[in-house]
Amino acid sequence: MANLSTSYMGMELKNPLIVGSSGLTNSVKNVKEIEEKGAGAVVLKSLFEEQIRYETSKTMGQDEPSNLYPEALDYISNYSRKHKVDEYLDLIKQCKKEVSIPVIASINCYTSEEWIAFAKQIEEAGADALELNVFILPSDFEKEGKDNEAVYFDILDQVKKKTRLPVALKISYYFSSLSKTTLKLSWAGADAIVLFNRFFSPDIDIDNLKVKAGHIFSTPEELSISLRWVAMLSDRLHCDVAASTGIHDGKAAVKQLLAGAKAVQVASTLYKNGFDQIPKIVSEINEWLDKHNYENLADVIGKMSYKKTTNPAAYERAQFMKHFAGIE
């Protein structure tokens, strides 16, 4: 049996499978089961910046945030009453008492304002690392691309000043120059880049004329979106790269590892198949390594990255034309 251990953000993982931030990681009970099933690490369910800001305003006796839509404020108010910041810190503390795998805290954020002080509390609660799930939809007609990108750097800079924890940025592909931006983020101190995050996708109910949620879970077909970029960025950035989205089985995980991912995050497949999918994925990775006579996962990671593959053009857009022209 091969050695599946890997190093991610300076943390030693027994295997590269990380259960990503989701409703599945919001309780000590689930986190314990995740460890028992064999995951290498877990990212706790995200605490949203809006929740932190709401709790801060209540604590300081301020008025409710005025920059939120009434519907959003109602939701945040109700949610925050049940899930206070202190409860999140307690979740971290209890998980650290109950499990030995790395516990990564998560904040879903979009500004670099006063909530950042919370990062220090996460460190004090015992988290092993912090994942910042950042998504800024470039929909503001008044902002240039550079203005949106600056927010990522501001968040990273402020958080790194507040904590010594390893910090990962989980980002989307909404960048005019994803390669250059991620490279600069790695220069700026990111310990890892997670490709890619997944957010609410709108759909339209054509019978009731309402906007509804669509594509809640990822599908195996979405693997290629992150696979391309993991391969192209993994050996060029000055930080680790983790893969997310579309990883539903061991074969998909192996592909991302070959592309250069130090770790892979799963969530949708666990919603569909339960936590028993964790040992199946780990077993499939192991079986593949044994079949191809690899003793260590380290010998596999990045073997098919852009720089190391014999056909790097396969990751480029030019192959689209070749495919439909019938050229191999």
Helix content: 40-55%
Low-confidence segments, ≥5 residues, pLDDT <50?
Answer: 63-69
CATH homologous superfamily label: Aldolase class I
- The order of strands across the largest sheet is 3-4-6-7-8-9-12-13
Structure report:
The protein is α/β, with parallel strands linked by helices and 328 residues long. It has one domain (6-324): Aldolase class I (TIM Barrel, Alpha-Beta Barrel). Helix content is 40%, strand content 17%. The protein has 12 helices and 13 strands. Strands 3-4-6-7-8-9-12-13 form an 8-stranded parallel barrel, surrounded by 8 helices. A two-stranded antiparallel ribbon has the order 1-2. α2 (49-59) packs across α3 (70-82), α8 (223-233) runs parallel beside α9 (250-259) and α9 (250-259) packs across α11 (277-291). The radius of gyration is 20 Å and the shape is globular. The two termini are 36 Å apart. Mean pLDDT is 87; it is low at 63-69.
Per-chain topology:
Layout: E1 6-8, E2 11-13, E3 17-19, H1 28-36, E4 41-43, E5 47-48, H2 49-59, H3 70-82, H4 85-98, E6 103-109, H5 118-125, E7 129-134, H6 145-162, E8 167-171, H7 178-187, E9 192-195, E10 201-205, E11 210-214, H8 223-233, E12 240-244, H9 250-259, E13 263-266, H10 268-273, H11 277-291, H12 318-324
Helix pairs in contact: 2-3, 8-9, 9-11
Summarize the structure.
It is built from twelve helices and 13 strands. With 328 residues, the chain is of the alpha/beta class.
Which structural traits does this protein have?
12 helices, TIM Barrel, 40% helix
